[in-house]
Specification:
alpha+beta, 26% strand, rod-shaped
């Protein structure tokens, strides 16, 4: 009887080529999912930062409208402000209310000079100053 040449040698166990390919595919899918999640997270952090800065610009303009002595506040007033190394473009919209001595002031803020977009907006009410002090 002819014995095979590998007879008597201890059988080594290992992974087959198919098992290795399946493991690599699993790692590749997992890595891709992790990279996508990290990318989405970084994008959302950037958006949150953008909205926060735009809201600060809007609140600054509303404070100026509150402190301004002119009555009624100017409608469709436009301007720009620099914050966090970027130029933000704002537009003030004044709306009449039921009270003749009160106006609703909304400030929309965006990154486009033509005011075609709005990243954030803020609204407040401005009352007519009384001269009785």
């Amino acid at each position: 009887m002819i014995k095979p040449q590998h007879a008597g040698l201890p059988r080594t166990s290992g992974m087959t080529l198919i098992e290795v390919m399946v493991a690599l595919a699993i790692f590749a899918l997992t890595g891709t999912a992790i990279l996508k999640a990290a990318s989405d997270h970084l994008r959302s952090v950037g958006q949150i930062e953008e909205v926060t800065m735009a809201t600060w610009v809007a609140n600054n303009q509303l404070t100026r409208a509150q402190l301004d002595d002119q009555w009624p506040p100017k409608n469709n007033l436009r301007g720009s402000a620099e914050m966090a190394g970027r130029v933000w473009y704002w537009q003030q919209i004044v709306t009449q209310t039921n009270d003749k001595d009160l106006r609703a002031v909304e400030v929309k803020v965006g990154l486009r000079q033509d005011y075609s977009d709005s990243v954030s907006s803020a609204m407040s009410f401005v009352a007519k100053a009384t001269g009785g002090d």
